[in-house]
Amino acid sequence: MPRGGFARLSAASLGAALAACALPAPGLWALAWVGLAPLIVSANSAPTRREAAAAGFVAGLAYHGVALHWIYQTCLFARIPFPVAGLAWAALSCALALNWALVALLTRGLAAEGSSAARPWLWALSWTAVAFLSERLTPRLAADLLGYTQWPNLALIQAGSWGGPHLLGFVVVLVNAALAEAWLGVREGLTGAAATVSAALALAGGLWVHGVSTLLQRPADMGESARVEILQPCVDQYHKWDQDFLKEVLGGYNDLLARPRLKSPSLVVWPETSIPFWVARSSAVPEARRWALEMKSPQLVGIVARPDRGEGASNSAQLIAPDGNVDGFYAKRQLVPFGEFVPLRGLIPRFVIENWLVLLDQLGDLAPGAARQPLLTTAWGRTAVTICYEAMFPRWARLDASRGASLLINITNDGWYKNTWGPHQHYRANQFRAVENRITVIRAGNTGISAVIDPWGMETAKLDLDVRGRLDAEVPLTDRFPRRSFYVRNGDWFAAACLAIILAALLRKGLR
Asked: Span 227-333+368-474: which CATH code?
């Protein structure tokens, strides 16, 4: 690898950009196991900690710039001028790159007095600790939860059921850091790197063997099932709230529900914000109520709930029973900045809001729901709901699973992003939530991807992106994991342990 400062930064950014291609939709998963090595070599060999942090920042900027380029495309779809779209994309990528700079700075500082054999472990520990804090404390897209890069490897992602969302990412970083150490060892004539590489590969291999063993235990016959109907109407998001298109939007749902069926469903799932107008929380949506009464089947429908009885407006889901009454309600907990509320609204020029955040300005800032809301009741027992972006945050699904949910339904509207990487990244997160919690996930998307994912992360039914239709699927009634997973029962123990070790190391260094 080149030695000069510019060459180091170039290599770090190129490797990180390639690693981003491991994410959905490209799915070049193998790149994640080597793409971070140039960054780690650059940071380890940089003359100062400041230069190590710079290597982390430019690599993070390249990674997020590639992974989240669809943010720029989405802004253009929304007719935001391209300079503003580019600024939004760059600002988000820079903000997320700060994590990578912090990891490089932390590791460089802690490794200054340690052996080269310890450096790969410090990289993995620091990365996991920072990712853990960020995932919990910031409203982020979590593209750098590196476990997501391994979404095509069903055996590897089984580790999430006991190590949570951060274990696989820890191993990915460890392998990269061990390879970086081996490179430096060859270049500088050091010894001992082979043992670290062997240990890292052995750990990765152990996760794979564990996953293969787990998948072999998946029963071929899932037993008795009940039917779910998932509606994917493919409504054009950029016309959806135009009242001139209201009849067309609602007619699309009626068309899907009027199609022939072999048997009556136990649940019909509509996507996020299916109804493009304000809805009272406690009054059943007339359009969905009519179908609940006619089909004698409950309807879970995405709505925008108007303010009511001291509660703010919310992005919500309403469960309508076969008798036409509201049988359950859920308000989204994790809101999207600049999508559902404007952070620091008072500091943003009014012309920006009026020209580029028109719909949000008309609706007003939405209010988040309580962290612990009553679970819904369906044919499959206690049922949890997440809406869109919430699927990217592991803690919400885990919280609901720990409270007794045996089914998780994610309703979403990725129509904003059209056929970019965005819908694929959002969809695959649900696969990880299914495995982590050992719970079946039903996903209904306006433009897709809609699917049923079993507790092993396997897709048992799927409707691809931009395909208009109704997905009729059988969902087993037998709960194969009544105690859920080790992760559900014990929380983010692995990531918390990494954080504790890093804090202890920093305290020890400070005392010395």
From this structure: 3.60.110.10
